[in-house]
UniProtKB/TrEMBL annotation:
Protein name stated in the entry: histidine kinase
GO molecular function: kinase activity
Domain Histidine kinase: 41-257
Organism: Virgibacillus kekensis
Keywords: ATP-binding, Cell membrane, Kinase, Membrane, Nucleotide-binding, Phosphoprotein, Transferase, Transmembrane, Transmembrane helix, Two-component regulatory system
Top-level taxon in the UniProt lineage: Bacteria
Subcellular location as annotated: Cell membrane
Length: 257
């Protein structure tokens, strides 16, 4: 609380009383803390790959160039870490665009069946590598008015997470249905699940239940923050049900117009 005070005098200039104004700045303080946290997180996330790229490049310059196998190995690390930086920067830009107050989705008529067909090759590959069966169930001719690339991103991010956080040979299922004025996108998996304490936090920027695991799968910790923003700018709703070691189900409801 911030307090601002001023004395009040009577006509003979004698102190009569005082006015105190109490400002509740909890919210402002919270915002300020969140902003500082965000900057610290971004800096850390950028620093990690850059340190690694620099280190491996320097080792190569110092002579490791002569060994073909080491060269190959180091270059592939440099390549992967650069990709990681690129994905992180793309995610940050996406978030910052979505967070602008004046941001309005550019809507067009989307055929969801076609959109899912476009997304599947991207996620199928990762699923196949882990022996995960990815099934799709949807009615014919589901359509809505929305920002197509953004809706695609919702489906990609949720499916990618489902595959990433499900052990080998598990199941991932995408269901799209027409529900009155909404369309309902459901992504369920038989993966590691999310504890009840963690559920409210997973949509925060950079929150990860297990940092090492998320990094290993190429996660930036921004995927769900982006999904939540896209859902919100479309006046939709997102919910999660999950149980540790059993699996998770994400539900997205988007108005059709
Ligand atoms: P990340 O890039 O780390 O996957 P996200 O924002 O997409 O970032 O997700 C935040 C965190 O939520 C993840 O690090 C993970 O701990 C948890 N999470 C997201 N989806 C799932 C899922 N399907 N199953 C289990 N945990 C999940």
């Amino acid at each position: 609380i911030e307090i601002v005070g001023a004395p009040i005098f009577n006509e003979r200039s004698l102190l009569k009383g005082a006015v105190l104004v109490l400002y509740d700045i909890t919210h402002l303080k919270k915002l300020e803390l969140m902003r500082k946290d965000f900057v610290a997180n971004v800096s850390h996330e950028l620093k990690t790959p850059i340190t690694s790229i620099k280190g491996f490049a320097e080792t190569l310059l110092d002579g490791a160039l002569d060994d073909k196998e080491t060269l190959q190995n180091f270059l592939s690390i440099i390549h992967d870490e650069s990709t990681r930086l690129q994905v992180l920067i793309e995610d940050l830009l996406t978030l910052s665009r979505l967070e602008k107050d004046e941001y309005k989705p550019v809507k067009s008529e989307i055929n969801m069946n076609r959109l899912v067909e476009e997304v599947l090759p991207i996620t199928n590959h990762a699923a196949e590598q882990k022996g995960i069966s990815l099934t799709v169930e949807m009615d014919n001719n589901i359509s809505l008015r929305a920002d197509k690339e953004r809706i695609k991103q919702i489906v990609i991010n949720l499916l990618t997470n489902a595959v990433n956080y499900t052990p080998e040979n598990g199941d991932v299922k995408l269901t799209v249905t027409d529900k009155d004025e909404n369309i309902h996108i459901e992504v369920s998996d038989t993966g590691i699940g999310i504890s009840q304490e963690a559920i409210p936090r997973i949509f925060e920027r950079f929150y990860r239940v297990d940092k090492a695991r998320s990094r290993n799968t190429g996660g930036t910790g921004l995927g769900l923050a982006i999904v939540k923003h896209i859902v919100e700018v479309h006046d939709g709703r997102i919910t999660v049900e999950s149980e540790s070691n059993k699996g998770s189900t994400f539900h997205v409801y988007l108005p059709k117009i």
